[in-house]
Amino acid sequence: MQFVVATNVFVLVAIAHATTLNIYNQCDECIQFYDNSAIETITIGGSTTRTLVSGFNGMFRNGVGPQATLAEFSITGGYIWYDISIIPTGSIGPGLCESLEACKAVTGGTGFNTAMQISPSGCTTVTCMADGCADAYQYPSDGTKTHACPDTANINLIFCPGGPTSATTPSAPIIHPLTTATSTTPSAPMTAALTTTAQPHLRSPLGQHHS
């Protein structure tokens, strides 16, 4: 009986899957890697990892300031949902603004602070090299920027992909090629963005926002 119980526990542990998030700093300065809870300094050329399990819904960024490029992840239903967000934030809004410029006008914020790339194995790579980048959420209802990948994939999150000079140069070379997700990608788990005054906020279908 004890053997059967032990075997069942082993099977449950074996089938429980966790996604590895590899974080790399290719900038010319240290990154203050922040998850709305704790800060870890990543040195120039350094890296760190995080383990994301089913049910995770959160974001990562460089620094604790209110204006920051966000890497947002949600793991549910056997998929990793991910996006980059540069929606501006401020003491007011962004509310229902419908463009990046409108959100900047409402909030007085910028949204972008550091070039970033999310590259899951075998799925679509998204890259944001400068303010206004096409791959990122620019306003709350910008609903075409979320991507999905099976939760068996590992993910690389790169700050300043291609090196420090690429942080403000949209045409700089990227270190990971763009791949295409399959056409069987299911619908995203959330479709409406919410904005509140508490931390963390939601600023895109996946994303957790910050005050």
Could you describe the 3D structure shown?
Mean pLDDT is 78; it is low at 3-15, 166-185, 189-205 and 207-211. The chain has a six-stranded antiparallel beta sheet with strand order 3-2-5-6-7-10, with no helix packed on it. It has helices spanning 2-15, 100-107; strands at residues 18-25, 31-34, 39-42, 47-53, 57-62, 70-76, 79-85, 116-120, 126-128, 147-150, 155-159, 201-202, 208-209. The relative contact order is 0.20. The chain has a domain at 18-159: Thaumatin. A hairpin with a 5-residue loop joins β8 and β9. It is mainly beta. It comes from Phytophthora nicotianae. Residues 1-18 form the signal peptide. InterPro entries: Osmotin/thaumatin-like_sf, Thaumatin.
Order of helices and strands: HEEEEEEEHEEEEEE
- Which second-level CATH architecture of the domain at 18-159 applies? Sandwich
What share of the residues does DSSP label as strand, in percent?
25-35%
Computed over alpha carbons, the radius of gyration is 18 Å
> How much helical structure, as a percent, in the residues?
10-25%
Please count the helical segments.
2
Q: Any low-confidence stretches, pLDDT <50, length ≥5?
A: 3-15, 166-185, 189-205, 207-211
User: What structural class do the secondary elements suggest?
Assistant: mainly beta
CATH domain class name of the domain at 18-159: Mainly Beta
Shape summary? globular
Main sheet attributes: strand count, strand direction, barrel closure: 6 strands, antiparallel
For this structure, the CATH topology of the domain at 18-159 is Thaumatin
